[in-house]
Structures are given as structure tokens and as C-alpha cells.
Design a protein that fits this description.
Number of helices: 2
Order of helices and strands: HEEEEHEEEE
Strand order of the largest sheet: 3-4-8-7-6-5
Structural class: alpha+beta
Mean pLDDT: 84
Distance between the termini: 61 Å
Helix content: 25-40%
Shape: globular
Number of strands: 8
Strand content: 35-45%
Largest sheet: 6 strands, antiparallel
Amino acid sequence: MLNALRIGLLVAALVLSQKVAADDVEFLSVLEDVPLMAGLTESSDGAVRFDTPQGRIVEAYAVGTVTKASVLTYYRDSLPSLGWARTAHGSYMRDGEYLTVSVQMEDGAAIVRFSLSPDGK
């Protein structure tokens, strides 16, 4: 009986910790449906957002001391759960919108560019 109680408490703690972790996810301010990877900080410089009759046009940047591979892996693994379908390396599509996540390394820091458009250009 004591083991069953311990197992129950452990399961409850794991569920609660996963919920808290999910609630702690930040999203880009100009792309509120794209998460910001831990270790990245959104840059307000260069952020652009236009709403057109054809759809949104958004460009945003984030920087951090993470690797290019970790950024691309994070978005490859996390975006599908938000409805984004991967179309190519670093490219995703959802509801007629195309999102590109590209990473440039500069002096050990990753500069991540998020580009969203209705036509994939």
C-alpha cells in the first residue's frame, strides 16, 4: 500500500512538473504562435509585422549562445505540435502561411531569423 502511494505521488509530481514546464514556454512577441527556445532572447531590433489581405508578413530575430543544430532540432521537434508541418530543412507550413527558421553563427552566438509569409518567399 505504501509503494502504491509513493508511485501515485511520483506520477502526480511528474505531471505537475510537465504542466509547469509547458506553461513556462515563451513565444515571440510578433509571432505569438512560435515558441522562443530556451537560451534565446528575442531582439526588438529588426522585427517587422504586416497584415495584408493575403496574410501576415513577419520577420523576427532572436540571439543566444546556443548551437545551430540545437536551434534547428528544437524547432523541428516543437513546431509540429503547434500545427506547423515541416516542408524542408528549417521550413514549415500551416494554414497557408510559410515559416522559415534560419540560423547564422557569429562570434559563438546564434542569430536566429524567423520569417513568415503567405507565399513562402
